[in-house]
Amino acid sequence: MRTVDLSVNWLLFGIFLFACASLFFSVSALELNAFILSVLCYALLVASLIPLGLALLNKRFVHIDRAGISYSFGCGTRYILTEDIKHIQRKRFLLLTVLQVELQSGEMTFFYSWTVSEAGFARAEQLLASK
User: 54 to each of 11, 51, 73, 103, 105, how far by Cα in Å?
Assistant: First the structure.
């Protein structure tokens, strides 16, 4: 395996979609005429469905290989070369996993809502270390 593919954190998106749906149905059930809450519910729903749809269509991805990290958020592919990477780190906060990439220039790049196993992360570190 020469590439480590980060996968979508389905549990995080599932809980987020459940929370959006619960908020929407609670506003509907209480028959509140709260236009702002309804708009907020629809906005949160769209904001979560678009990234999921792009991930299912393989337009939103993060790949790690010897050349570096290639990623897309749906519009064009971007690259971080191995020579530019100082180190990578994986941080977990409850359901949220953040892949943090520190560049030689001191800049930080973060990848939210992706998940990678311990073995996959170790493999990614190994691939990036073999310059």
Answer: 17, 5, 8, 27, 30
